[in-house]
Amino acid sequence: MNDTERRRKELLEQTRMRYYDKGMPPAVHPRYRAFYKELYEEDTEVGKGGTFGIRSFICILCFAVFVLADYKETEILNWKPSAIIKEISQPFGMQKKLENFIKFPQ
Q1: Which of 2, 26, 81, 106 shows the smallest number of beta carbons within 10 Å?
Q2: CA–CA separation, 81 vs 64, rounded Å?
Q3: 61, 53 in Cβ contact below 8 A?
Q4: 100-106 LR contacts (CB < 8 Å, sep 24+)
Q5: 41 near 30, Cβ under 8 Å?
Q6: pTM of the predicted protein model
Q7: How far apart are CA 1 and CA 88, in angstroms?
C-alpha cells in the first residue's frame, strides 16, 4: 500500500466518522419534531403511554355486565337491557339535525 492509497483510506475513514449519525435524529420538519423526539430519545420511560388497555378493559367489563343483565333479565340503574338495545338500534337522525341547522336546496 503506497502513500496515495493510505491517504485515500484515511480520508475515507474521516468522512465516514464525520457523517456518522447513529445517535442523532435526522433533520425533520418542525411539525414532526415532537414525534421524532419521542422516537429517538434514549431515556424514555417504559410505562409512559396511552390508556388503550384501561379503556378496553372498561369496555369489556361494561359489555359483560350488559350481557349478564340481559341473561338474568334484571335492570341496571332503572334501564332494562331491552330498552338499551332499542335505543341503540334506532337511527341516529343526523340528517334531520343537519336539515334543521342548514337549509338544503330542494
Answers
A1: 106
A2: 12
A3: no
A4: none
A5: no
A6: 0.40
A7: 82
